[in-house]
Amino acid sequence: MNQSSGPGARRCLNPRVITLDRLTKVFPAPGGGDPVVALDGIDLHLEPGRVHGIVGRSGAGKSTLIRCLTGLEKPTTGRVEVDGTDIAALDGAALRAARRNIGMVFQHANLLDSRTAAQNIAHPLEIAGVPRAQRQQRVAELVELVGLTGREHNHPAQLSGGQIQRVGIARGLAAEPKVLLCDEPTSALDGSTTRQILRLIADLRERLGITVVIITHEMGVVREVCDTVTLLQDGRITQSGDLLDVAADPHGPLSAELIPLPPAPTGIDALVVNCDYGNSARFRTNDDLIRLAETYQAEATLVAGTIETIGGRQVGRVQLALRNRSGRPISREGLTAFLTELEAAGVVATEVTA
C-alpha cells in the first residue's frame, strides 16, 4: 500500500526541496554526428518529506538525470536546485559541500570489502573530516536506525544482500542529507528482502522527514512506497503526479503498468468488457459492477483483474464476461446501456470480444 507523507514531512518548512527548471542535457555525438539529447526541458518540483519515484525504460534519461542532480554532469541549459542551492552553478569545494545534502544509495552498495559495516558507514564522514568521536556516535545511531545492531563489526562477505543494502542506506544518511537518492535500490534483491528494504525506506521518511527519490523500473516498488511518480520517455516527462491520480487515470501511459491487467481466458461464450474504475466515485469494487449488470438482466463474471489499494483507495482494472439469464451473451442493446451508464459514472469500459 502506498504510504502517505507523515509527521516527519510536516517538520520541513521549504515548500520545495528539489526544483528542476527547463533542464536540458545534450551530448555531442562521437564522430561528429547529430548531438544526443538526453534530457529535453525537464520541469519537476518535489515537495519535502515525500517519496518520489522516477520510472522509465533504458535510455529514457534516468541516469543522466541522477548525474545532473548530484552535480556530476553540468546541464546544457536549465537549473538544478536542491534545498535552495543551484547545484549546476557550483564547482569545487562549494559543490562538494552541497552534495552532502544528497545521500546516494545504489543498486549494488559497492562497500569496501576490507572495512566492517560500521567502518563503511563512517567512510563519508572521514572524507568530510568529522572528528572520530562524532563519527562513532553518528555510526552508532545509524546502525540502530537501519536495523543492523549486532552486525556492525561484520565485513561485507559476512552480510546478506539485504544487510549490505542497509549498510548502503546508512552510509547515504551519514551526513544527514535533506534528500536520499536511491538508484534501483532493490533490483538485486529477492521479493521478501525488497519488501523489507521498502518498509525501511518508508520508516526513515516518517522518522526523519527526509525526501526520497527512487529511480526504478519496478512498478511494484512505486506502488509499495511512493507518494508521487514521474515517467521519463526519450528525455522528456510524459506523466507526473500523485500516485493515486496517475494510477487511476486510464488514459495515462503509466496506468496500465501500475495496474496491469492479466490476459483473459480464451473461448468465453460471452461479451467481454474491460472496466477501469480508478476515477469513479460511484464504482469502487467489483461487486458494484456486478450489481449494475444485474439491473440489465445480465450475469457478470470476473474473468481477469488486478486490484491495488493505493492511498487507502482501491484502483481496479478488470475484465467482465456478460451473459443473460439463459447463459448466452448479453444483448447488444443491454451491452450499450451498461457501457453508457458506466461511462457516465466515470468508469472507462470497452468491449474486448464479441
TrEMBL record:
Recorded GO MF terms: ATP binding; ATP hydrolysis activity
Keyword Membrane set for record: yes
Alphabetical UniProt keywords: Amino-acid transport, ATP-binding, Cell membrane, Membrane, Nucleotide-binding, Translocase, Transport
Any Pfam family hit: ABC_tran
Biological process per Gene Ontology, one example term: amino acid transport
ABC transporter domain sequence ranges: 18-259
InterPro entries according to UniProt: AAA+_ATPase, ABC_transporter-like_ATP-bd, ABC_transporter-like_CS, MetN_ABC, MetN_ABC_transporter-like, P-loop_NTPase
Protein name, UniProt field: Methionine ABC transporter ATP-binding protein
Lineage: Bacteria, Bacillati, Actinomycetota, Actinomycetes, Micrococcales
